[in-house]
Each structure stands twice: as C-alpha cells, then as structure tokens.
Amino acid sequence: MIAKPPSARMFAITMAAYLVTAAASTLAFGTTTPVWYSDAILLVPLLLRPVRQWLFYLAPAWLIDTCVIHFLGSGPAFALGLVDLMEVVVAASIVRVTGGLHAPAFAAGQIARVLATCVLVPMLSAAFAAWLLLGTTQQGYFGLWRTWYSGDALGLVTGTLFILSWNDPALRPTWRLPPAKAAALAAGVAACVYLPLNQIQEVLVFATFPLVFALTWSFGLLGATLAVAGITFGVLFATITGHGAIADLLMQNSIESWMEAAQIYLACILASTLPLTVLRARQAQLTESLRRASDARTEFLAAMSHEIRTPMTGVLGLVDLLVGERLDARQQGYVDALRVSGRHLLSIINDILDFSRIESGRLELEQVNFTLRQLLEGVRSLAHPLAVERGLTLKEELRCSDDLALCGDELRLRQVLLNLVSNAIKFTERGEVTVRVGARAEQGCLRMLFDVCDTGVGIPQEKLAHLFAAFTQADQSTAREYGGSGLGLAISKRLVEAMGGSISATSAAGQGSVFSFEVPLAPGKAMPAEAGKVAVRVRPLRILIAEDVEINRHILRTALGKDGHQLEFATDGAQAVAMAQAAPFDVVLMDVQMPVMDGVEATRRIRALGGRFAHLPILGLTANVMARERDRYVAAGMDDCLPKPIDWDLLAAALARHSGGAVPQPLPARRRQGQALLDERTITELRGMATSQEWAELVAMGLQGCRKALAAIEAAQGDATAVGFHAHKLKGSAGMLGMAAVSRLAGELEAAAAEGRLDDEALATLWSTWVPTLDALRDRGLLDGLAPVPAELGPAPG
After folding, report:
1. What dihedral do alpha carbons 697, 702, 707, 709 form, nearest 10°?
2. Where are the alpha helices (DSSP H) in 662-719?
3. Is pLDDT of 659 > 90?
4. How far apart are the first and last CA of the chain?
5. Most CB contacts within 10 A, which of 218, 340, 576, 779?
6. pLDDT tens digits for 338-354?
7. Pick the residue with more confidence: 224 or 478?
8. What is the pTM of this model?
9. Angle at the Cα of 166 from the Cα atoms of 163 and 167, rounded to 5 degrees
10. What three-state secondary structure class fits 441?
11. Per-residue pLDDT band at 670 (split at 50, 70, 90)
C-alpha cells in the first residue's frame, strides 16, 4: 500500500523552517553550534504524523542537512547528516513506543516522556558526531561530544516544546492584536533582543527574566515565543561577536566559555517561560470551562423554571378559582394551606432564579425615578399584614423627608428591604420591627442608609460571618422551623453590591438583630402629584389563546370568560398561526413553549404574513423569567411578555394597553378618597378567604374593636402611655380589615407615644379619617348585611 503524502502546506512550512535554521546556525557557528533547532523542527511532524509518512520528511531533510554542512560547515557532510536523522528517528520512535503523543500535549506524564527523550537521545548522536569530527578541529573527543550534545539537547528541548505548543489548539494564540497591544509586544521583544547585547550595564541581562514573565502572562504563547526568539538572537549574536552582557560578565575570554554560558542562560529562560505559558493557557481553559458550565446552569434553570412554573400555574390558578366558591370551614382551611404552600414554593423558585441570574452576571439594574415614600409604602403594604398576623408592631423612623426624590432600581431596592423586613418578622416572636431610613449627601449622589431592627431570637456571633453565604441559615433547625431556601440574604448582599453599596448585620443571641445596608442613588426628578384614581374597564375582546396545557386553558377560560371576552384556543404554535389567518382577532395570548411549533416561531410566522398581522397585538405567556429570554421573545415580534403564574391585574392592564380596549371611568369624589383610604390587597384576600356570614362577623367584630380603641384614645387625652397602648390595638384591628389610613395614623400615634409625646396632628387626622373610611367601606358594599355602624366616637356597645 502506497503511503499518502502529508499536506503540501505542512510539508513546505517544515522544510522551509528546517533549511533556514540549519543554514543560519551553521553559517554563524560552523558545524558545532550552541543551539541546533533544526532537529526539533523535524521531530514534531514525526510525532504527529503516521509512521508511513516519515519518509516524506526524512529524505528531503537529510539532503538539506548534507548540503548545508558541505557548503557552510566542515566535516563529513553525508555521515553527519545521517547522525542528525538517526537522532530524530530514535527520539520519535521512543516516544511512540512508550505511549505516543495525545491531546492535550502537555499532560504531566506525557510531557515528561518527551523531555526525557530529548535530553537522553542526543547523548548517543553526540558520541557518533564527535567521533566523525575528530581531527577537523583542535578540540578533543570529550570537548566535541559536550559541544554537540549541549547544542542538540538544548535545541531539541526548546524547539520541540514550543512547536508542540503551537500545534495545541488550546494554547495556540491569535496574531490579531489591537494597535496598543501590538506596540507593547513589539517594545517588549525589542528589549529582549537589546538586554543581552548591552554593554553599558551588563547585569541588566537578568532583567530578561521578569520581562519574559510579563510578555508570557500578557500575550500567552505568542509573547513567550517572540520573547525567547528575541533573547536567542541577542545571545547568539553577542556570542559570535564576543561583545555583550554575557561576554563581559565572564572572566574567560574564549568563545567556548561564551557558548556554554549562552546555553545555560537560554536553558534557564526556557525553564522559566514554558511552564508559565502552559499555566496561563490552562487557566484560560478553566475560565472558559467555568463560563460554559455557568451558562449551562443558567439555561438549565431557565428551562426548569418553565417546567416547574407550568404546573404551579395550574395549582395557583385553581386555588384562585376555589377562593371564589362557597366553602365550609374545613374546605377553606385546605384552600388556605394550598395557597400558602404554593406561594412559598413559588418564592423559593424565584429566589433560585434570581440567584442564578446574579451569579451569571446577567443582572440588569434599571434607573427610574421614585420617592422614598413610594418605596416604603410598597414594603409596608406587603409586610404589615404579616406583622399584624404575628401580633408585632411594624414601625418606621425617618431621618429624612419621605418626599425625597430618588433615581435607581426601585424594584431591586424594595426586594432587598422587603426581604430584610420579612426575615425580621419571621424570626421575631414578640415586640416590634423597626425600619430606620436616613440619607447623606455625597459627591453628587445621595447615600441612602437603611436599618431593619427587630426584637427577635438574635444570631450567635460565630454565625454572623457566614450569614450572607448562599443556602445558609444561622441554624440547621431554622429551615425546619421557619422555612426558606437560605438564599434571601445572599441575594440581598449581591443586589446591594451590584448597586454599589454594602450590607452588614449585628446581633447577639436572644437580643434581636440589626441589618444595615447603604446604597448610593442619584437624585431623582420630582414626581408629579397623582391625579384622581381611574378605574379601567376593558371592552369584550376576541382573543386567540395558544396554550398546550389543558389545566391552563381551563383557568384562562374561566377567568377571562366572566369578563365577556370571546375566546378561541390553539394547542400548539402551528395551529395558532392557522387560526390567526382564518379569523380576525383583537389579541393573541401566546404561550412560549409548546409542541409542534413554539410560541416564538409562531409569532415570527404571524408577523411575516404582513398586512394586519404586522400590528396584531401578541402577548407572550411564559414561566421563563430570564431577562435575556424576554428580550428574545420581544425581538421575535411579541408586544409584551407576561409571567406565569398569571397575575390577572397585569394581564388586564396589558389587554387594555395593547388592544385599545380600555374605557377610562373617573370615579366619584368620595370613591377616590375611599380608594386611598383602603388597602385593596388585604380586603380582597380577606374577603376571598371567608364566606358571607364569616365576613359579616369579622367586619362587625373588627369595627367594634376599632370603635372601642378610638373611644379609649379619646378618653386618654394627655396620657401618652394609654394612648400608645390603645393606638397599638387600633393599628392591628384596622390593618386586619384593610383600613390602611386608620392603621397608619394609629401607628404614628403609637410611635409618638413611645417617645413620651402626643402627635396632635396625627390625632386630629385620625378623627377626620374615621368617617370617610366608613363611607369607603359602605361604597364598596363591604358593610352590606351589617347593622348600621355609627360614625360618632361614643362608647361602643358591649
């Protein structure tokens, strides 16, 4: 069988390099040179190519070697050429017999075999060469052997390792560098050439070592190769001329001593450079591997978020439907447990996704204008019911104006503050949770200072150091008793640091805790005063819904059908495209992940139809909440992207916004006032959990408690302690019923009383707020079926 020749390109490069290095070395130093790189240039193809291709390289190389020695050197050219070939063939054979060469080339055991072969085989070839050269020079046999061996061994080790490096895809560098980097590399290489040649300050030759380190670390194999090549040129040129740092530093004045010193110097340079090159490449590989692993984890979590959130959509959607049914007490308890467990699981999923997004560096911070009051009201509206449920007082202490206008990521800031407040409530059995807020002007920005203090269980000192680590809680029993994923504080820490701030905690077991964080925020634009509230009613729409999960279709049919919308369903993207063409629709609700054709491709195909389809509103529904994926959905043609489980308020607002179906309805003056007086979220949730009879009993008892507390506050004028005691009761009773304004004003009274003073303004406002609050409840139909509720603040019956 005739062997297949090597590639013409590889063959031409090898032979050209062999000729240039052999001719240059022999012309400069004769047959015995301080460094002989040519054998290394020939050895590497033999290590990398099949044995049957060896002859294609060996024959031309022997011819080149023989001609170079004959015309430029001295000694028996034919025989010395065969010695060089024998050295290369023996070295390649030993490496192959002992295991061969496999990627990666610089595996520890493998590279040790190559190095040992390159050091030992030249001993044999030097013995033959020294015998052949006896009588051609004044050197004896041992001197000839030593000169030949040192030059061959150094060239073989240096050249083989560098050429193997250039053949390793993981180590191979790029030649394309920015102009500034290219200039820096050129300057470094020029210094490598100059330092061995300089005679002004000879000891500067040792500066080549840190210089080579710097070039290798900055430019990898390219920098190392050019640096070693530059140093080799400078050293060999200095050796030929007898001038330069090495010649000046040596006491002996002979070319043999200069050559030996040059060889030792170059060997030290190589031993210092190549390991660093490999280390840097391995570090780059490891970094890339970690990046790919992180990307894979992020993609996995994105996919899992859909897989987990899809059934969660069904579970929570059915629970929402059950809340509106007539249930007995036992059934209501089951629904309650389902709702709490489902929301808890959803919060853990959200924590994991948030943490993954932050860890992968894909967190995007928004810059929006907001006021401090907006931020605190958002936290209070969610945290206050939790505090009331546990019998705790939730206080605010402001050391700056609550009308302070700020610019930053309000959503993430609220997430951090709410997490800290929720933790404080969760770990506090009795007492209070206080939120202190301050501001400090600092170099064109406002540094906002937040403290969340509680009177809870506290944290032992030895646990504080690990408090902000992921999946960590102060005690293993904490997760069993209080629940949670152990990610909340880790997420808070990373969010605060992403905003340029810092977070810390101080605590002692049994003495409560204080969590403090500060973030720099830009001054915001003044927010315009909010106009009267507007109710939005969406006219009945014809909606095409693409959803493959049957339970989700059932929930959407129930929730949207009651608003008079005409609904048609597709179970995959291809069916949705066909149905969109068959009939006119006002809006398309498009699930993203479906069989046959996904929602993204279906959206692209609908947009590609042109005409009216170019402007048909398409709203994506997805459990994949990653920002990058949302951008991809919008880029495909979706007008908006809503999360699953579905937030019905968000869906209604999106339908109104994109369909042009919103009919604004200004509310009567009294109703606008009532909307501001009530906590709609608390009322809705409470009303949904109770039957009509239970609701009536609950409201009657709550209002009776409020009237008793109000009457007691009026009777306790001047006694701050008594006012504070009854204000605390009023705050809890009013908060449970969703009477937000009364609860807030009672909280202000309580806070003032705790400082030993009476807040006359809050007291006067409280009296004037009670009657409008009752009117607001009555306007909402929340007092239907109850005995008339007197507005005056006389003693409550019973």
Report:
1. 140
2. 669-677, 680-689, 692-715
3. no
4. 113
5. 576
6. 776 776 677 667 666 66
7. 224
8. 0.43
9. 90
10. strand
11. very low
Burial 627-666 (b: 16+ CB within 10 A, else e): eebbeebeebbbbbbbbbbbeeeebbbbbbbbbebbeeee
Q: Which of 708, 758, 760, 754 is nearest to 734 (CA)?
A: 708
- Per DSSP, 15 falls in state H
**Strand 587-591 to strand 618-622: parallel, antiparallel, or no bridges (unpaired)?**
parallel
- In sequence order, which ranges of 324-359 are alpha helices (DSSP H)? 329-359
Of 749 and 180, the structure prediction assigns the larger pLDDT to 180
- Torsion 682-685-690-695 (CA) sign: positive
Q: What is the per-residue pLDDT for 450?
A: 95
Other beta carbons within 10 Å of 521: 25
Which span out of 72-86, 221-235, 661-675, 701-715 was modeled with the highest average pLDDT?
A: 72-86
Cβ-based burial of 115 (10 A; exposed 0-12, middle 13-18, buried ≥19) = middle
Tokens for 251, please give them: 């006491």
**Least confident interval from 431-445, 454-468, 522-536:** 522-536
Contacts of residue 555, defined as CB under 8 A and 6 or more positions apart, other chains included, come to 313, 314, 317, 318, 320, 321, 646
658 token code pair: 């994109």
Instruction: Name every residue whose Cβ is closer than 8 Å to that of residue 95 and which is 6 or more positions away in sequence.
Output: 47, 101, 113, 114, 117
Give CA angle at 51 (48, 56), nearest 5°: 90
Tokens 């109703």 belong to residue: 671
Contacts of 456 (CB under 8 A, 6+ apart): 424, 427, 428, 429, 431, 512, 513
Tokens 């041992």, located at residue:
142
Distance CA 366, CA 751 (A): 34
Residues in the chain: 798
Task: Count CB-CB contacts under 10 A for residue 477.
Answer: 9
* Longest Cα–Cα distance in the chain: 131
Give the pLDDT score at 515.
Answer: 94
Alpha carbon separation from 552 to 312, 494, 517, 569 (Å, rounded):
10, 35, 41, 11
CA–CA distance, 474 with 468 (Å, rounded to integer): 10
Q: Name the nearest CA neighbour of 105 among 341, 346, 231, 277.
A: 277
Q: How far apart are CA 251 and CA 258, in angstroms?
A: 10
Q: Is the pLDDT of residue 63 over 90?
A: yes
In the numeric block, which tokens belong to residue 26?
Answer: 């022999």
CA pair distance 620, 641, nearest whole angstrom: 4
CA atoms of 223 and 476, how far apart (whole Å): 52
pLDDT tens by residue, 561-580: 877 889 999 999 999 999 99
